Amino acid sequence: MSLSDMYRCCSQARERRPRYASQPPTKEFDMSYVFTPPPAVSLPVRGQDDRFPVHRVYCVGRNYAEHAIEMGHDPDKEPPFFFQKNPDNLIVPDLKFPYPPQSNDVHHEIEMVVALKKGGTDIPVEDALDCVYGYAVSLDMTRRDLQGQMKKLGRPWEIGKAFEMSAPCGEIVPASDIGHPENGAVWLKVNGEMRQEGDLNQMLWKVPEMISYLSGLFELVPGDIIMSGTPAGVGPVVRGDVMHGHVEGVGDLIVNVV
Question: Of 74, 80, 154, 184, which has the most beta carbons under 10 Å away?
Answer without folding.
Answer: 80
